Amino acid sequence: MSYSSERIPTILLLEKDDETRRLLIENLRDRNYRVLAAIDEENAIEWLVNNQEIRPNLLVINQAKMSLEDCLKIIQRIDEKTGLSPKIPTIIIAEQYSPALEGTEARIDDNRYIIYLEDAQQLFALVARLCLRINTN
């Protein structure tokens, strides 16, 4: 995937686990995405408030040890406290789910998705689809 420098999608990644965060950043950057990483809600809000000139095109958040409702509330607070548009596509990486859901994804609303990973390639494919949609709008 090749973009001019102005069209390179920027992804805000919320991931608490250091090793997972490092691997996701590395793999997303290898796929030509700009990645902003935060360890939690407060870190994401602080970064976005202090860097108003950079706005992510996509939000990826790991649901680790949270209910889906809690995860959606975090996304809403980030939107409200930073002026981030709620129209920005968001991917929630589910942490615990039944084997029947593995390898699937669901659309929660117009711009929110939950993904039940079978492998990382599934996440990267959804990121690519959403970023393609961003660049064609």
UniProtKB/TrEMBL annotation:
Coiled coil: none annotated. GO terms for biological process: phosphorelay signal transduction system. Transmembrane segments: none annotated. Residues 10-131 form the Response regulatory domain. InterPro entries: CheY-like_superfamily, Sig_transdc_resp-reg_receiver. This is Response regulatory domain-containing protein.
